[in-house]
Structures are given as C-alpha cells and as structure tokens.
Amino acid sequence: MPYPSRAARLWRTLGAVFVVLVFVPPLLLLVSGSFTEPGRPPPPTPRLVPDPLSTVGYEQALALGGLVRATVMSLVVAAVTVPLSVLVAAWAGFALAQVSRRVTAMVVGASLLALMAPATALLLPRFVLFRNLGLTDTLVPLIAPALIGVSPLYVLIYYLAFRGLPADLYDTCRLADLTPLRTWWRFALPVVRPVTAGLTALSFILTWSNFLDPLVYVYDRDLFTLPLALRSLSILDPTDFPVFLAGAVLATVPPVVVFLLAQRWFLQSDDPTGRLR
C-alpha cells in the first residue's frame, strides 16, 4: 500500500537525519581539531576550520606515539581474529540450525546466559590461564578468543540467519547426498552473505578498538596495539591536543573503510533473512 510505504520512507529518512546530526558533528570537530597547530591553547569555542591549518599534529603523532608499529600490530591481530571468529561463528550457527529444537533451545539459552556475564569477570581466569601457559606479553591472548567465535552473539545471529532459510534448500541438499560442510559452503553461506559482511565489519571494529585485553596481556611496547599507543598520546600537555586528535583520526580510518566496503553487501535488497536491512 502506498501510504505505509511513504510513511516508512519518511521514518527512515528522519532516522538517517537524526543519526547524521548526532554522529557527524563530533567527527567534523575531531578532524578539524587534528589540523590545529600544536602548542596553542584550545580555542574557547569549537572551530570547523582552524586558523592556521597545520599538519604538525599528524607528524608528531606518528613520531611520538609509535603509531606505525602499533597499526601493524593491530592489523596482524585483526587479520587473524576477524576471519577466524566469523568462520567459527558460521560453523556453530549452521550446526545449531540443523539439530533438534530441544538441543537448540538449550544452547541458545546458554548463549544468552553467557552474554549476560560481564566481560571483565572473565579477565582473571583467562589471565591466569595465559600466564600459566607462558603466553602473556604476546599477541596470542588477543587472538585465542576467536577460536570460540569471540562472542555468543555472533553465533546467535548466524543461527537466526541459517534458520530463516527455506527448509526445501536443506532437503534438496540431503537428497543430493551433500555433506553438511558442502551444504554450508556451497549453498547456505552464500545466501547469508549480508550477515557475513555485517559480522565481519562488527568483528573488525570491536577487535580494532579493543583496549582492555592488550592492556592486561601485553607489556612490551613493540607489541602495543593502536588503542594502547593512543593512550600514550593522551598524557601529553593539554596544548598538544591536536597530536592526540590526529592519532584518533588515523585510528578511525580503517574501521570506516571496512564499514564502507561491507555496506554494499549488508544493504542488499535480496537479504533473505531481512535482519541486516
């Protein structure tokens, strides 16, 4: 019907305008502040165009904060963690979609209970485990959680996506004598590609911005990830705020790029689950 369609478009437009008004101004101030000349006191009022424009903040951020090495470390962690966590979550979600509903209900209930547990409550036992294994002050504790899909939320999202596929698809694959792994790879996973794109972007952003785990497990400055390197810039003199803002801008670029690359998939109109539109 035309009226609900117009109303839905209107609400979507209003929602998009609200999001732009909330998130864009801070980003503009972040970028403009990074081009302010260091050594000057912060302006009494925000300025979108600083006077004079200066790139010294970026030069000092790269020189003082070790951002290049920290960026490499963050990329190494993300390059291993993101694909592994998405892969494990996809396997687990597909398996849940194939078993009986009683088993699924038990696993989903356990996953919801796990989601309610605060992440900080798991730090102490994990720290003791990695310390006894001699893995502290390495990147292994930052990557190892990917072996269990990082978060039960990823598994639940994949479960809902695979459960939403037509039952005829799975029946046809069984009649064709396809193994569950081939069914998952050749038919189920391509259909839920928007879900994979969305979870990949989410996993990358969470991995890239992870501050607590590197703070607990990593002590060698050469192994610092980007959030830890940015923390070292936060102790500079207040007049050097453009240096910190420049580091924040550099740290923001990769997640934005990943989001823009992923949105072409999770905004597709042929998403069969309708969960990422």
TrEMBL record:
Keyword Transport: yes
SUPFAM superfamilies: MetI-like
InterPro entries in the cross-refs: MetI-like, MetI-like_sf
Recorded superkingdom: Bacteria
Places the protein is found: Cell membrane
Subcellular location, principal: membrane
Assigned protein family: Belongs to the binding-protein-dependent transport system permease family.
Protein name: Carbohydrate ABC transporter membrane protein 2 (CUT1 family)
Native species: Actinoplanes xinjiangensis
